[in-house]
From TrEMBL:
This is Ferredoxin. GO terms for molecular function: 3 iron, 4 sulfur cluster binding; metal ion binding. Its cofactor is [3Fe-4S] cluster. It comes from Ilumatobacter fluminis. It holds the Pfam family Fer4_15. The keyword Lipid metabolism does not apply. PANTHER family: FERREDOXIN. InterPro entries: Fe-S_cluster_ET. Gene3D superfamilies: 3.30.70.20. It comes from the Bacteria. Keywords: 3Fe-4S, Electron transport, Iron, Iron-sulfur, Metal-binding, Transport. SUPFAM superfamilies: 4Fe-4S ferredoxins.
Amino acid sequence: MPIYAPLMRVSVNTELCQGHNRCYALAPELFDVDDYGTAVVIGDGTVSPELEDKARLAVANCPEYAITIDEAS
């Protein structure tokens, strides 16, 4: 039986983001900052298994609740 790992993706609601950039400080592998200081997701937002804890930490530390995680099963 194959081992199945669910796909995790992060996304940033740019309308909620106020540019605190805690996500970028905590997980620069997953987030970047645009020219206006708004957080953006790197790539398509897919989170590798070794970065899942960092993704959850970024969500927990966003004061504007602008980051969400989608875990497809």
